[in-house]
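I'd like us to work through together how a protein chain folds, taking it slowly. To get us started, please write out a protein record for me. Go ahead whenever you are ready, and we will take it from there:
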Amino acid sequence: MPTPPGMVRHLWFLCFVLKDGQEGIFVNLTDSENSEDNTVILNPGDHPFVIKKSVILYSRAMVFKRKNIETLLDKGIIFPNFPASEGLLSKINKGFMSTSVVPEPVRLVLPV
């Protein structure tokens, strides 16, 4: 996802695919010290990007259109990373149901 100038890059996960692949729900990873929500904690070894204790930042979950993601990829604004294992993605997806901080527009389209 786009990172404003001067900001640290974060890893984003595509968690759910919606509307026949035309939209997706994304959530990002952040330093555990930057979030009060510890629903899902990741440690080094859980994913190659993770180098310290981190958490999924459900409060910043977003729905993105596929065409917008493709444009950001084409422009080099975002970059693919190592894919998450099925187990890790399952853990992250279950967290959507456990936390109360998912933004309402995202919560309304979550597959149940």
Summary: The chain has one domain: 12-101. The mean pLDDT is 90. The beta strands are 12-18, 23-31, 41-42, 54-65.
